[in-house]
Amino acid sequence: MFLFVAPFVLLLVLALIWAVKFFLIQPVFDPLRNLPGPEASLFTSHAVNVVDPQRSVIYNRKYREDYGKTFKVHGFGGYDLRLMSFDVRTITYILNSPTYEKPKISRGLLATFLGRGIFTMEGAEHAFQRKIIAPAFATQSIKELMPIFFHEAQSLRDKWEELVLPSKSTSDAPGHTLLDVSHWAARSTFDCFGLACLDYNFRAVQGETGELYTAFRTVFDLVNEKKVLRLVFPILDRIWPDRIAREIKKHLAVIYRTGQEVVDRKREEIQDEKYKSKDFLSLLIKSNLSTDSNKRLTDSDLLDQITAFLFAGSDSTGLSISFCLLYLAEHPEYQTRLRDEIASATTNHDIAAGDYPPIDSYPFLNAVVRETLRLYPSVHSTIRVATKDDVIPVSHPVVMQDGTVIPAGGSFPIRKGSAIHIPIEGLNYSQDIWGPGSLKFRPERWMSDTESPSFPGLSNVMTFSLGGHACPGWRFALAEMKVFLIIVLPRFRFLPVENQVIRRFNGILTRPFVKGRAKEGFQLPLRLERLES
Ligand code: HEM
């Protein structure tokens, strides 16, 4: 009996010792404890305050006002101390230093549906992948993709012309048609990515029936339905898969099968010496062929890389386009100004014949797109974890709990394993950077010589992050958004829906839903009025 019970008791004692150390002792010696921050008990979490877009607007500002630019919050509870900072020096340091990586837990979660793509990589392997794909997203390559962006925007415009009633044609809603613009923009950005990066036509705008499109779409949508427990412990999906895990597995099998045909076709084309294309898939395959055979990606790794890029590059841009249309619907004066700018820039050009002015000949369009990206960052926030003990620099003084002051230019210690919450949206809304009207949609701020923002993020916003993991597709996204507006705005007027409030939900991406109608799922309905062409 003793022999039977003893190991069990020993295990229990070890678990207890671990729990006391982890929950009670370690936090006492954590250097982050001395940072200012909201007080909390062992069971208090501030996570919702900083990740829920409905609350983060209020709490980011409150914490910043109460504790200064750099402070701590509690993650899952009092034991889980996390660093948070609005100090640009601190953020720049963390995001550029190889000491800070994405948390293993979120990489594991992404791996359950994106496989071994770029999101799961760190260090040399990650840097190698970034180097391979860089030419596909360089300025010149994006210029070469313009005809695809124009063609796809025109397809969506034509589709909407079939759906949107001519002005004043119905009695109940004269001249207006209600459309969920986020649904359509997502389909269009899928098609754009497919043609631009894979040389593959998903034909999602024409109909949501393609096997590969349906498989990708279903996997990306199911991720939003995952239960919190399974997000935190992805291993559950392996040992005890629920309906969502089983569905994801089934559709991933389609992606591997059908995607393989796309890869095989491209590989054949590449064998031809005259083949010059620099699209994303060609670069991946070419680099793979020229790599030392024992370092080569397997075909399934290649497909995982495609899945990761498609996931990162389609909905993020589609959602940004949708929020841009919402802002323009809420600000008709800007909508008219933008339509006028597009009309005068394109007067002597035949866009349908592929003759369009350079994308930088629309200063107000540029301002509208960047202001949209500032106010709506589709990635709300991100996390990094220290992989070793380190010291973190600050450019603004921090008054510690024990009364000591870390001066501007000084630094404070951080322990291996500590998490840092990077408030992407918070930095985009910061009054210190953007002035007192930081929450207002005001594109003019991008056109003024005196207030032109000098924020270090890509395109001067935090939206695409910065450092080694910053978004490689930012030029692609900006160009796609601009072309979409150039094509669609001259044909439609966008109006808000009466008594409808759009709220945001932060999953992996921040998605819109209608207040009071969350059960209907993510959507961003607007009223469209067809204009004379
Ligand atoms: C408006 C649209 C977009 C936004 C707001 C956006 C935002 C971001 C952000 C914030 C990150 C960094 C996440 C982190 O550090 O945790 C990121 C990474 C990434 N983005 Fe984008 N992105 C957009 C469009 C695109 C496009 C069009 C592509 C590709 C065609 C793309 C591909 C990627 C990839 C592959 C990564 C991972 C980079 C790495 O880990 O090295 N994104 N994006």
UniProtKB/TrEMBL annotation:
One MF annotation (Gene Ontology) recorded for this entry: monooxygenase activity
Swiss-Prot/TrEMBL cofactor(s): heme
Record: residues binding heme: 471
Record's GO cellular component terms: membrane
Family per record: Belongs to the cytochrome P450 family.
A Pfam family reported for this protein in Swiss-Prot or TrEMBL: p450
Alphabetical list of InterPro entries matching this protein: Cyt_P450 (IPR001128), Cyt_P450_CS (IPR017972), Cyt_P450_E_grp-I (IPR002401), Cyt_P450_sf (IPR036396), Cytochrome_P450_monoxygenase (IPR050121)
Pathway the protein acts in: Secondary metabolite biosynthesis; terpenoid biosynthesis
Signal peptide: none
Protein name according to UniProt: Cytochrome P450
UniProt-annotated location(s): Membrane
Source organism of this protein record: Marasmius oreades
Keyword entries, A-Z: Heme, Iron, Membrane, Metal-binding, Monooxygenase, Oxidoreductase, Transmembrane, Transmembrane helix
Keyword Oxidoreductase: yes
Principal location class: membrane
